[in-house]
Design brief:
This protein is mainly alpha-helical. It contains one helix and no strands. The longest helix is centred in the middle third of the chain and has 64 residues. The radius of gyration is 28 Å and the shape is rod-shaped. It starts with a helix and ends with a helix.
């Protein structure tokens, strides 16, 4: 009985190590890969929107001049 319990808890501990490693790896991937990519994407969207509004304002000023 004690050998079965030892194997059971040993296998559970081993599976817990891999489970914890997966969670830590996912968190580090999010921090180092996904969050910076999302921030760049949002920055690009904002830059495009800013360029578009600047261009529209310039066109409106040109129309008012002529």
């Amino acid at each position: 009985m004690s050998e079965a319990a030892l194997v059971y808890f040993g296998a559970g501990s081993l599976l817990f190590v891999f489970w914890a490693y997966g969670i830590v790896s996912f968190a580090l991937d999010c921090k180092n890969r996904f969050f910076p990519a999302a921030a760049r994407l949002v920055a690009n969207w904002r830059a495009r929107r800013r360029e578009r509004t600047d261009e529209e304002e310039r066109e409106q000023r040109e129309k008012q001049l002529y």
